[in-house]
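Suppose you are handed only these lines of text.
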Amino acid sequence: MDPSAGTRLAAWIHRRAEGEPVAYILGRRGFWGLDFEVTPDVLVPRPDTETLVEAALPLVADEASVLDVGTGCGNVVLALASERPRAQFTATDIDPACIALCRRNAARLGLAVTTRIADGLDGLDGPFDVVVGNPPYVDDADARLGQGDLRFEPRRALVGGPNGGLDVIARLIRKAPDRLATGGWLCLEHGDEQGDEVASLFEDRGFVDIRGHMDLANRPRVTVGRWHGGTS
Ligand code: GLN
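From them, the structure of the protein bound to glutamine can be written out as follows.
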């Protein structure tokens, strides 16, 4: 190993020993078999979130229009785009740095996605056939926010409010029908103890065909529902 590589490796080891996620140190993380650039502006893509891609994929027809809300580095939308080359993809994020990163990842992977800086579903057109999202859903008071890799990740991508962390998810479920085509699907990741409550929110809003999906540890982590197309 040449001396400069040794120095670099020592610096990386020091950062990891301080607890920084490997993905931020290397600036890279694999997801759905694709290689993504990641920065501390975004949540590190997690294997759990491949459950969201798996749940959404059968709902994305060849020429569907798909929206990913709160895209981060773009891992969910670009994984879907890699599987459905003829569909139309839009990705939003409130943070311009995330949008810039998503665009870099799309360019590097040779995948097409339209991007918008937006807060949730505000200011978008549509209608979309499928809306997907991995929104922040950790409770403000969750002790895990002060531990391990989560300490280094953007709070805005993690924290979904007090009293259960469901504020952002509830708002998305309330507003999604305004952006969904008749028969369109909303697919959301959530915490492993939030499945029942999220399903109730879908039901109360008038979604039908509501289904939960399990992650690899067999915990309920994704809920999907279809918008019947009536007045929202
Ligand atoms: N699953 C993540 C965690 O608890 C949180 C991701 C999110 O809030 N969207 O580590």
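What can we learn from it? The CA atoms of residues 62 and 85 lie 8 Å apart. The pocket of glutamine is lined by residues 46, 48, 134, 136-138, 150, 158 (CB under 6 Å).
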